[in-house]
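Researcher: I'd like a structural prediction for the single chain below. Treat it as a standalone chain; there are no partners to consider.
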Amino acid sequence: MAASSLVLVLLAVALGSLLLVWRARKRPRVRSACVVVLGDVGRSPRMQYHALSLAQRDFDVTLLGYPGSKPHGELLNNKRIHILHMPEINRIQVGPHIFQYGIKVIIQAVLLLYTLLLKTSPVVYILLQNPPGLPSIAVCWVVCCLRGSKLIIDWHNYGYTILGLTHGFAHPLVQLAKWYEKLCGRLSDLNLCVTNAMREDLAKNWNIRAVTVYDKPASFFTNTPLETQHQLFMKLGQAYSPFRASTEPLDPAFERSAFTELNPRNRKVTQLEGRPALLVSSTSWTEDEDFSILLKALERFEQWIIDGTNLPSLVCVITGKGPLKEHYGQIISQMCLKHVQICTPWLEAEDYPLLLGSADLGVCLHRSSSGLDLPMKVVDMFGCCLPVCAIHFQSLHELVKHEENGMVFMDSEELATQLKMLFSEFSSPDNRLNQFRKNLKESKQLRWDESWERTVFPLFTHT
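Model: Treating it as a single chain, here is the predicted structure.
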């Protein structure tokens, strides 16, 4: 009985394997690609842009990842892009930490392999985001071997350095992740990366040749017209008090936000005299961004206003989702500020560019775990001609030019000093912020699609 049961199990495994191989060997369509994100698709803008760029060049694209945040409307409305979700796996809270992590990785590997082989058609290219690369690099390589596809890895950072922020770089799990990433990273047919510093590091330490593809803002990151700003502020004011007017207009027919006023007779929108400055920062609320630096700088800014320094009141909007949001939310709720208001909304994909295009200054606290990537949030801000104060790390100079398109700071005191300097002549048209804006406009930055056409598309056609 036991022997016959074993035979049946082996027969089922054999037939299943033959079925997988048969499906894998189906001929892929000539212009087809699968973009793989082992994360929230809606919070992976670079991979969304890859998918859009491929679709605009007549590729049939499957975008595979976890559900969660809503992707941009252009992606959802493109008939050549099919978004395929796979379930996100939470860590099983049983046994030692390494055991929990190992079980999670195994389940992820099985689900990803199953989804790629049984729920997607064969494609010419699999374009994979790294990190996370464990287990996705190995799984995608196996699928490429079975189906004759080309594996392209887009290196955004190193997964093991992100893991090291939590466990320490000497931890066995981190060392194992580094070994895996280094070994499996060499299995790809083509590698893209986000900075020249990362390209050089991949070549020197991992013997991986990559092509630098800088992040560029999509076309919808641009200056927001004043009328659209007003609509956005009124919309956000329904949920967040810092966007609401602090005083009523003299004419009750007028519509007023904290920053703008609409005359209903001629439909003209004007900025309020004495309006607060609008500061924006976006985040994933993770360990590589220390928001206590910004909060301390805002407390210093508040004290300068109390002491009589000629500075505007300030609305600080910190947008994003992530594991540390609740932690910082509790800290913010305990701050007693009168001249600085802080709110932490999650914005829809269509509203985020409008907010950046309406702001006066952006702040970036992304401190790269490897020192080799660049914050895409700054790229988006520059697309909106929004000056930025960014915390220093190794490769930041490839994006932020100090005192040219923004400022670079080291700590909270230096950030506070920069905020004081930038907002000290806020009402003057010749203030430092407007000089930075002028520099950004004159730089004539390439947009994502233009850059992709020049750098990435030729690689796809020749790989």
